[in-house]
């Protein structure tokens, strides 16, 4: 069974080095953040019209990643990041002699599912975990007295003073803002506008609230 599995191999070696594997994984991990930041930048030019797209960035990246990885698997028998470092996936026919052949169509599809689906599901599980933790925090915080500064922003964005549009929580302070409001603020001042704690774009998490 193992002898017919799909493996990574370098162009000069039968198996890739640990450094090549780490390097390609590191590159792969930058694709999603880069895609989302580019999408956010493009949407910011006409936020009122296209702002709703940001609620579906995970699904948008999933579709983009499917087409990207499918192209590279079909043409180079490797994922995008693996191709960048000269790696490719092959089928080992005989592990003793090193006899190998290219991935079959079925193996390409299986590789595509693994490359694309696992990161997407992992991301969704992280979001669900965060949502669950926030709900627990909310339920326990009700027992304690809520500070006046927090009460005055209940149900509204602390920046525009209007009902939230695309709920976004700033992790360093726990306050919820409109996505576009807090994004602009963080990019310019790099701190929470309420608590003045240092903050960056990576500290923003969108909440999917009906």
From TrEMBL:
Pathway participation: Protein modification; protein ubiquitination
GO molecular function: ubiquitin-protein transferase activity; zinc ion binding
Subcellular location: Peroxisome membrane
GO biological process: protein import into peroxisome matrix; protein monoubiquitination
Pex N-terminal domain segment(s): 24-147
Signal peptide start and end residues: none
GO cellular component: peroxisomal importomer complex; peroxisomal membrane
Main localization category: membrane
Name of the molecule in the record: Peroxisome assembly protein 12
Organism: Trachymyrmex septentrionalis
């Amino acid at each position: 069974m193992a002898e017919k599995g799909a493996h990574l191999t370098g162009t000069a070696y039968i198996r890739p080095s640990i450094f090549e594997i780490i390097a390609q994984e590191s590159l792969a991990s930058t694709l999603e953040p880069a895609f989302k930041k580019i999408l956010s930048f493009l949407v910011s030019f006409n936020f009122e019209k296209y702002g709703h797209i940001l609620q579906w960035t995970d699904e948008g990246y999933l579709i983009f990643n499917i087409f990207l990885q499918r192209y590279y698997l079909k043409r180079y028998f490797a994922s995008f990041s693996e191709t960048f470092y000269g790696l490719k996936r092959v089928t080992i026919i005989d592990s003793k002699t090193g006899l190998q052949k290219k991935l079959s169509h079925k193996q390409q599809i299986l590789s595509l599912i693994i490359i694309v689906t696992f990161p997407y599901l992992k991301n969704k599980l992280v979001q669900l975990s965060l949502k669950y933790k926030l709900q627990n925090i909310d339920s326990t915080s009700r027992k304690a007295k809520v500070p006046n500064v927090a009460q005055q922003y209940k149900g509204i964005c602390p920046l525009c003073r209007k009902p939230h549009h695309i709920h976004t929580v700033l992790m360093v302070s726990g306050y919820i803002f409109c996505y576009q409001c807090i994004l602009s603020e963080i990019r310019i001042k790099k701190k929470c506008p309420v608590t003045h704690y240092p903050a960056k774009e990576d500290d923003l998490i969108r909440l999917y609230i009906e």
